[in-house]
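Record format v2
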Amino acid sequence: MSLVRQFREGAVDFFASFGAACLFMLRMLADTPRALLRPGLIFRQVHVVGANSLVLIMMAGLFVGMVLSLQFYNTMAKFGAEQSLGPVVVLALVRELGPVVTALLFAGRAGTALASEIGLMKATEQLAGMEMMAVDPIRYVIVPRFLGAFIAMPLLTAIFNAIAILGAWFVAVQMMGLDGGQFWAPMPDNVDVFDDVLGGVLKSVFFGAAAGLLAVFEGYRAHPTAEGVSRATTRTVVITAMTVLVLDYMLTAMLI
Amino acid sequence: MNRSVEFATGLFIFLGLLALFFLITQTTNIQAYGGDGYTVTARFTNVGSLKARAPVALAGVTIGRVENIAVDPQRLDAVVTMTIDSRYDRIPFDSSAAILTSGLLGEKYIGIQPGADTESLKQGDEILFTQSAVVLENLISKYLFDSASGGEE
């Protein structure tokens, strides 16, 4: 009995949250044109969420590329297929790993920062103070943060991919002794600029919108207490990770 | 906004665009879309696993790409449209095209065998002499049936 009720409440809660997030998105879109009139606010957020995540993304990209190359090299060498290493690594990165891992790291690094910042602004009644002064917090606080995340994500993904490919090259060519030409030469025949690279960019655009929306949404609707802010931060990571993975499957199914 | 924030943001956006440029130019077939060329067609009875954007090679050097593969509903054969780089505009008109495989299990590509005509292939021309893809199953079944009938004699 209580299990059924719990399930029903969970389902109601899920759809209510989903609907609230969609309505919040519409509200932000309505305010976006006016927020674009103040690009300074947006670029400050590009700095906060993008430039500050740069070192993390680059380190993660380097090691993801290196481990990918190491694993594939050892497996493919058994079949004598080392010359396919370059295209395999690049396709895995630009199509899947790059956008997804970047989005997950982004949720952990920048999403939590956004959610807790907005939650704290709410807890300390800064948002209410803005409303008192007839300053719309959606327009001047929320939308610039969302747009910052939206702009930063594709750029971070591109940097992640580029560094990861260089890391893969380093392991394959410098450490394992694969010929550099064998690594680079088969790529252009196997990697398509529209299907693969720009498809990955399109994914990261969607992930940027999802991660940005969920972070500001969770921050904005946080309970204005210390506990509420910490809960919103946790929820941001969990929900963004789930959304990104589900969205990834749906986008992949559509792009293929 | 202070100067170091501006610097970091600018650097970040610059690095992002640079990375995208690197990905597009270094790892993809972007050259296949650029550059001007002329298109020629060729008819094959069987294209095997030839795909659009497969290379067109002359003497082993890629000189163009397959644009499109379609079936002619009247003659029931495959019409392959390919774009050849305009630098290679002196390919004899009576050259032949064959569908070849790079390596034992590699990708299919079109190999051009030059002829001796003084006239060159131009935009919209058709390569008249073609050789279809070798389908491994046909080859094996031919071999099997040949040896079976040979045994009876």
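Residues 85-123 of chain A form the longest helix (39 residues).
The radius of gyration of chain A is 21 Å.
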